[in-house]
Amino acid sequence: MNDERKPVWPWIVALLMGLPILYQLSLGPWVWVLSHHVLPAPIELWLARMTPTYAAPSNFLYDHGPRAAQRIVDWYMDLWIPPP
Predict the structure, then answer these.
(1) Which one of 3, 73, 79, 80 is CB 3.0 to 4.6 Å from 32, fit for a cystine?
(2) Residue 61 falls within a domain, yes or no?
(3) What predicted TM-score, i.e. pTM, was given to this entire model?
(4) Comparing C-alpha atoms, which of 76, 70, 82 is closest to residue 28?
């Protein structure tokens, strides 16, 4: 019987690196849902109220991060925001 345990640290590293990236990528669909009005009004209203809280970490990094990162975020968000 093999009682060797697999190390946990690769999963921890993957989560620590992956979750912030997934959070940032989730902002695009969040904006798309709000701008296309595809959800019932009460849910859309709740999402609109939660947006400043949900986007606060991203907004802080955008405001205080390097210009190159801001350009990447601008490009990514333009993919999700409909043209005026």
Answers:
(1) 80
(2) yes
(3) 0.76
(4) 76
